[in-house]
Amino acid sequence: EAQVTQNPRYLITVTGKKLTVTCSQNMNHEYMSWYRQDPGLGLRQIYYSMNVEVTDKGDVPEGYKVSRKEKRNFPLILESPSPNQTSLYFCASSLGTEQQPQHFGDGTRLSIL
Amino acid sequence: GESVGLHLPTLSVQEGDNSIINCAYSNSASDYFIWYKQESGKGPQFIIDIRSNMDKRQGQRVTVLLNKTVKHLSLQIAATQPGDSAVYFCAEIATVNKFYFGSGTKLNVKP
């Protein structure tokens, strides 16, 4: 089954404790992206990747890092999480960006205390 | 998740009626638009897309209309069912690699 898989689905942690949210897709998609979703604000792009070893900032990259060492994986790293990063996070992938819809994972709810 | 639905405009319709959900986009250079459905606890799910060289596209029970003059997009759902209850939002690609998403409309289908 074609899917985007995120882990963990839920995480409660404390300020300053490094965490990684993994994302994996099995569709051989080139483009992958991370979003955060906050009430009333819609989805906002954090980082995206056009292909292996190619990443770029989205609209809200502060406090986040990503890597793309393999085509299928695109982890999101919070080196020193803060409470304002409490949010619902989605990973998405698409075949390309030329008029291609993105496929989303089921989300990761992060709570930073 | 559940908090996605907070603070959103809500459209309530009776089961069997048609629903129309609207979206205004911001960039006149956008050339590709997508409608997504998001159910509680799940990620956005692709419904239908449309390119800027079209003004209408139909799918199964859904129709998307694009009015480039006023930068307006609408999603029409025919014979709305309880399973259609969700948050719906539009997305536009304004430049290569960048997707912009609306904040969404919550559709509530009354049986």
Question: What's the short story on this structure?
Answer:
The complex is a heterodimer of chains A (113) and B (111). Chain A has 113 residues and is mainly beta.
Total helical segments of chain B: 0
C-alpha end-to-end distance of chain B:
23 Å
Shape label of chain B = globular
| Annotation field: number of helices of chain A | 0
Largest sheet of chain A: 7 strands, mixed
Radius of gyration of chain A: 13 Å
Number of strands of chain A: 11
What is the N-to-C succession of helices and strands of chain B?
Answer: EEEEEEEEEE
Which stretches of chain A of 5+ consecutive residues score pLDDT under 50?
Answer: none
Radius of gyration of chain B: 14 Å
Shape by Cα distribution of chain A: globular
N-to-C series of helices and strands of chain A: EEEEEEEEEEE
The tally of beta strands of chain B, per DSSP, is 10
Largest sheet geometry of chain B: 6 strands, mixed
